[in-house]
Amino acid sequence: MPARPVVKRLPARRGLFAGFKGNVDAITIGLKYLVDPKRITLIYPNEYIKLDPGYRGFIVLEPKKCINCSSCARICPAAAMRMIRRMEEDPKTGKKKMKLWPVINYQRCIFCGYCVDVCPTEALYTVPYHDIVYENMAEMDWGLETFVKPPEYPTAKEGIPVKYIVDEEKGLVKVRAEEGEEE
Amino acid sequence: MAGIIDLILSIIFYPPIYQLVLVGLTGSLVVVIFIIWFERKATARVQRRLGPYHIAPRLAGLPQLVADLIRYAFQEVIIPRTADRELFVLAPIVATVLSILPIAVVPLTSNPAYWPIPMDYSILVALALTTVSPIFLIVAGWASNNKFSIIGGVREAFVITAYEMIAIMSILSASAAVLTFNLVEIVEAQRIWYILLNPIAFLAAFLSVLMATSGFPFEIPESENEVVAGPFTEYSGLLYGLNMGAAYMKRFAFSILMVLVFLGGWSPYTPGEGILSGYLIPSLIVVAKAAILMMIFSLTRSIYGRFRLDQALEGAWRLVFPMAVLGFGLALLEAYLGVM
Question: Chain B interface, mutation test: which of A13, A29, A41, most B Cβ atoms within 10 Å?
Answer without folding.
Answer: A41
